[in-house]
Write a structure and sequence with these properties.
With 286 residues, the chain is mostly helical. The protein is built from 12 helices and no strands. Helix 1 crosses helix 10, helix 1 runs parallel beside helix 11 and helix 4 packs parallel to helix 7.
């Protein structure tokens, strides 16, 4: 089995578990900014410690800072909009739509890196677009009239775009920089992006302890460190258009765990959307 595929599977499992913690943060009504700050700070500390004591050298510091800035901004905004969307829209809708950023990434990879598109991948892209229509159809029949539903969908699509930018910038980092150095820089910058939203995203009712946000964020960070490192290793060894669809299936973990733990109802439309999303990312792999 190819090494890049093993790293992709490891990233799939770890990042899927981490993304479920987004739902935990939303359900506990944590201040998303503080959750994200704790998350970013945890990964920054771990990666900085390992980078310093592994005696690695920084390759292309200019590129490192540039890619780190783009990645930290897009990943921070993607995380915040994702968690905020989960406060307004069911996980069965948010997770599949957000993970369709794989389509944007594959298209970019084909155009920029000249990856060849197979008939299966073309079918996967078309199917992915259909998934978005399926999972949002239920809300269109009455629920979209509610301001929270509209806001939730806007946040969901914003997270989709930010996630695509973060994935693409990660590919450049995997090619031109050291993985641990990139993680340290991007998560350090991400801490400050998160702090900038702390007042805007404060939850006034009911008053909650900030400790909840810090604890959930810390758990996110520990799991994400392993998942993101495996993701970068997979990108350094495999094609962007192949790795992203595999890792992109991690949304399934969030939906299944949300249904089991938070008793979210899986409507026929959502089940169909999830199933089509899985087929889509499998076709993108072929």
């Amino acid at each position: 089995m190819n090494t890049w595929y093993l790293f992709s599977l490891a990233a799939l499992f770890l990042m899927g578990t981490q993304r479920f913690l987004y739902k935990v943060s939303a359900e506990r009504r944590c201040n998303t900014a503080w959750t994200t700050f704790s998350f970013m700070a945890t990964v920054c500390c771990i990666s900085s410690f390992l980078f310093i004591f592994s005696h690695r050298s920084v390759m292309n510091p200019g590129i490192l800072l540039l890619v780190g800035l783009v990645n930290s901004a897009s990943f921070s905004l993607g995380t915040i909009t994702h968690i905020e969307a989960l406060k307004l829209v069911p996980a069965g809708i948010v997770y599949p739509v957000v993970r369709m950023n794989a389509v944007l990434v594959v298209i970019f990879s084909i155009l920029f890196f000249k990856d060849r598109l197979s008939p299966f991948q073309i079918a996967g892209i078309v199917l992915a677009l259909f998934v978005i229509l399926v999972v949002t159809r239920g809300m269109a029949r009455g629920k979209l009239a509610h301001i929270d539903s509209k806001k939730g969908l806007l946040l969901t699509f914003a997270s989709l775009v930010f996630g695509a930018v973060a994935s693409i910038s990660s590919k450049f980092a995997a090619i031109y920089t050291d993985e641990l150095a990139f993680m340290a820089v991007t998560y350090f910058m991400g801490m400050f992006f998160s702090l900038g939203f702390r007042k805007r995203l404060a939850v006034g009712k009911p008053p909650l302890s900030r400790a909840d946000a810090w604890i959930v964020g810390f758990l996110m960070g520990v799991i994400n460190f392993g998942g993101f490192y495996c993701f970068l290793k997979a990108l350094s060894l495999g094609a962007l258009s192949v790795v992203i669809p595999i890792v992109g299936m991690h949304f399934i973990f969030g939906i299944v765990l949300s249904a089991l733990i938070y008793k979210e109802k899986l409507t026929p439309e959502r089940i169909l959307g999830i199933s089509l999303a899985v087929v889509s990312v499998i076709l993108l792999r072929l």
